[in-house]
Every structure is written in structure tokens, then in C-alpha cells.
Design goal:
mainly alpha; 0% strand; 72% helix; 2 domains; elongated; single chain; 4 helices
Length: 125
């Protein structure tokens, strides 16, 4: 609140004290009305909610949809990354290993990872 200082009466006027008190009472009354409007209604809302006994608190079940969306989107992103990585490494390093029919799939992956590691080590040196 911005308070303005306006001098309407001379300094030693007999009306100055009475007018100042009247202005103070009016502004205090307005402030009390505003605070009653804002804060007593909130208290009455709390009392109404307690009287109903029907509190809707946020529980873990409230976030099921959010967790489902987050889980599905992160799983999809991970699958996209691994498929992109698989295609990229197959083209550059592991094409001939993938063609070997005598090896199991997990053995092919291990050989491919070893080959990639050896390639990177040789590039660093």
C-alpha cells in the first residue's frame, strides 16, 4: 500500500487531530474488511472440507497415468537408441561377425563389442 502525505490543514489546526483519527479509523476498517473477506473465507472452506470428511489427498495411485506415460516414453527412447546403435555398429564393425552362422547370438554380440573396443584402443594410440 502506498501512503501519500498530504497536508490539508495548517500544523497547529484544532481539526488536524480529529481528521487524522477519522482517516485512520476508515483505513483500519477497510483493511479489516479486506482481511475478513480473504482469510475468514479460507477458514470456512477448511471447516466445510472437514465437515464433509471427504478429503481427496494425492496418493501414489493418483500418478499412475503419469508413471505409465513416463515409463513408456523412456522405454521407447531406450529401444530407439539401442536399435540405432545396433544398426550403426553392424554397418561399421560387425557385419562379418553377424554373417557367421556357427555362433550363437550372444557370442556374436560379445565378439562385436570386443572388436569395437580393440578398434577404439587402436585409434587412441
Amino acid at each position: 500500500m502506498i501512503l501519500l502525505y498530504i497536508q490539508a490543514f495548517p500544523k497547529r489546526s484544532p481539526l488536524l487531530h480529529d481528521v487524522s483519527r477519522a482517516v485512520l479509523q476508515v483505513t483500519e476498517g477497510k483493511i479489516m474488511n479486506i482481511s475478513n473477506q480473504w482469510f475468514e473465507e479460507a477458514a470456512s472452506c477448511d471447516q466445510q472440507n472437514r465437515a464433509k470428511g471427504n478429503s481427496s489427498r494425492l496418493m501414489l495411485d493418483s500418478f499412475k497415468g503419469l508413471f505409465l506415460i513416463a515409463g513408456l516414453s523412456s522405454t521407447a527412447a531406450l529401444l530407439i537408441f539401442f536399435s540405432y546403435f545396433y544398426i550403426k555398429t553392424d554397418i561399421y564393425w560387425c557385419h562379418e561377425i553377424r554373417l557367421a552362422e556357427s555362433l550363437l547370438l550372444w557370442q556374436k554380440h560379445l565378439m562385436c563389442l570386443r572388436k569395437m573396443r580393440l578398434e577404439r584402443q587402436s585409434q587412441r594410440q
